[in-house]
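Example 3.2
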Amino acid sequence: MVNRLAQSQSLYLRKHSENPIDWWPWCDEALETARSENKPIFLSIGYSSCHWCTVMEGEAFSDRAIAQYMNSQFIPIKVDREERPDIDSIYMQTLQMMTGQGGWPLNVFLTPDERIPFYGGTYFPVEARYGRPAFLEVLQAIRRFYDTEKGKVEAFKAEILENLQQSAALSAGTAELNREIFQKGWELNTGIIAGSNPGPSFPMMPYAELALRGTRFNFDSKYDSKQVCTQRGLDLALGGIYDHVAGGFHRYTVDATWTVPHFEKMLYDNGQIVEYLANLWSAGIQEPAFESAIARTVEWLKREMTATAGYFYAAQDADSFNTSEEVEPEEGAFYVWTYSELEQLLTDEELVEIQAQFTVTRGGNFEGKNVLQRHQPGKLSATVETALAKLFAVRYGGNPDTVKTFLPARNNQEAKNESWPGRIPAVTDTKMIAAWNSLMISGLARAAAVFGNLDYLELAVNAANFILDNQWQNGRFQRLNYDGQSAVAAQSEDYALFVKALLDLHQASLNLGNGEATQQLPNSQFWLEKAVQVQEEFDEFLWSVELGGYYNAAKDVSGDLLVRERSYIDNATPAANGIAIASLVRLALLGPNLEYLDRAEQALQAFSSIVRDAPQACPSLLSAIDWYQHSTLIRTSPDLISGLISQYYPTAVCQIEADLPEGAIGLVCECLTCKEPAKTQEMLLAEIQQSQRRG
């Protein structure tokens, strides 16, 4: 017997389709049923590759006693946060208000009339353990509280709603966004990735990206920004967070030493990390491990994460099966190695070198098995590369040179029933998410520009073209695509990150657009025109005329939300408004429309109070301030473009100029003012560097 979620396109929702709980998707009918029956809503939010979401699905949500009580006393609603980040954002904020912490699965209890939460938590076990109460006891206590403490429910509801509304309004600040504000924010955010952390290690790419920007300034700081940024790159490229056998980065490591990952691979992390490592290289930090990690990650992307239509899949699970007879998958099974396996697979010489280069011991570093983590940077030896290729063959059933496509397991049944040539792979969530694809497009475009790699550019172009050709319904941008069917109105992060991706393709196409091999690819002007078109729609439907900045969702598709939020706080992905403001400045540089600059200034002012008072929450807004204060347009001839775009000029855009003044090789403009025409390369570079550091 299956429930309503069986027909859902979402992999996460379908995972709950055989639960005895009578789940509803988030819809008007579910919300009206709660109102008419006066039953509190149990809202549970998660995502397909979330480990503890999977655990709770197999435990509490599969328990018949819990389901019987839940079905009679509540209206249970399931939401995939990757489908509806606007809903997730609101209720995650309320959980943090109530408990001081958050995470997934996100489980909150809502009043049936106004959908305001009055209790919440994350993982609830079937039996009391880990210092957490048994879930059935929680349900019974919540229902008693709702029925007998109406006054307290109303008071609690009013407080939560008032706090939400105040947070969403965020009155426009009066802080002057000067050099001092930027430097203070840069210092605080650099300290976040520079400091030692006793807990889990996350990539935190928006913070690392801002820190890297500071390397071009001579700030009086306690941090050596170049060293901090290099170390973050080394942690990523050498650590267990990176899959040294087959490429791709895991979500985070559970320790402070970057050793044992939480094994899911998310597209959004990989896009940002590829862009960051390429930027490190372009800034002169040319560590071979960075180039290798980019190359192997792109191979993973092509082999396992790219649909035949050209777009990129969303994620791969942390858990997988060792055998088809197992009932539950095991965390990391696809990725880890026992010492005895390595002894059997490798020659004595290979094993000695693997142990010299990686954290490999008889006892292992993860539940008796080994996660590979490199000891030192540099180029790997041919012997080690041969050993890694043997491990690849065990996983995939063939050598890296021959296994170019590895079809995904779309659910646990496919994973267990398919005859795999190697290990049973983790399940892949094959939906297309516009925002996450955009992050990967940007990463590929930047790597293509830095390394002059046409393959990277073609991969990015294919994904961008898929979005342009398939993600508009009735003239409106759509966030998701399930096997060719677009769904769910795009949100601010989709618009903001796709505009950025199109602008990144514009720059990369200038760099790689001169050879015969690129004649089949769209030219740079095509990408700029598309960016302008998407930006126009973004401005029309999500711009806040009253407050400035962009709402998370358009007014005509947000009637089911408690409040309309504007994203400005960075999480695993950068906040939409920070990215959007930077793109507005870029568009103002590349075209004659100065309304973009006005809008960027208005948006920055809208968030100026949060930048001043809590800069550690919003590194992307600080990066946008950098763009606003140091924006630079470089106009030069095609033969000089490549050498400029491949360098690290983080607030510059290039444009081919056919009509330069006599004797000039380039023009450098600082937003509204142009410098003296440069007549030599030395003069041109000096003007660019001065413009990038001015103020």
